[in-house]
Amino acid sequence: MADPRSLFDLTGRVACITGASSGLGRRAALALAGAGARVVGVARRQDPLDSLAEEIGARAATVTADVADRAAVGALRDAVSAPFGPPDIVVHAAGINTRQAADEVTDEGWDQTLALNLSAPFFISQAMVPTMKDKGWGRIVNFASLQTTRAFPGGIAYGATKAGIGQLTRAMAEAWSPHGITVNAIGPGFFPTELTQAVFEDPERAARNASQTCVGRNGRLEDIDGPLLLLCSDASSYVTGQILMVDGGFTAK
């Protein structure tokens, strides 16, 4: 029997991570690089990408782009593929939460949220899939949310996209898993990121969220490493169309 640890080895794989300039996207790039992958971080802000590349070293490259720009998906695919070849792994960590109450949702806020949170993961994946099919191997990881199944105040647009991510993940798995491409989603609980800054700046609110978990605390960035590595490696070859909640048991209570 082979060493089970080899199931998690990403040496020789190329990973593309959107939203890699901060938060869970940045952490994802570091984790996959640490497992041996060559990583291409994608985001709109160049300076944080430069910092990420410097931290990882020679196995990192970056692409500055707006992933919600559908007209530029082909150019994005080509730019991501240029440094190390077409990606074997795509992690969709880019996202936005306008936090507009239902009565205050604007056309712009709604369209921007859907474009970035729901449309981009599909169309970018669609552009990357042909080379994964050629190899007979691919991993796509979407980012779901507590709001995939729960309604939070000020989250109607965000929640709609994250519920959509749940079904998108299943539908993408149905379409592409026969070709060796697994598609799953991670559903983070409350982690300290730019999207949740308002939560963590309110100690009472942060403590209340922590008390709603089974483990009694909010997430730490390193808590995402293991679940992500599972879904991006050979260890999950028979896992597809699933949402893995990484929330300390928040949704279990």
TrEMBL record:
Ketoreductase domain segment(s): 13-189
A GO term, aspect molecular function: oxidoreductase activity, acting on the CH-OH group of donors, NAD or NADP as acceptor
Pfam families: adh_short_C2 (PF13561)
One biological process term in Gene Ontology: fatty acid elongation
Taxonomic superkingdom: Bacteria
Family to which this protein belongs: Belongs to the short-chain dehydrogenases/reductases (SDR) family.
Protein name: SDR family oxidoreductase
Lineage of source species: Bacteria, Pseudomonadati, Pseudomonadota, Alphaproteobacteria, Rhodobacterales
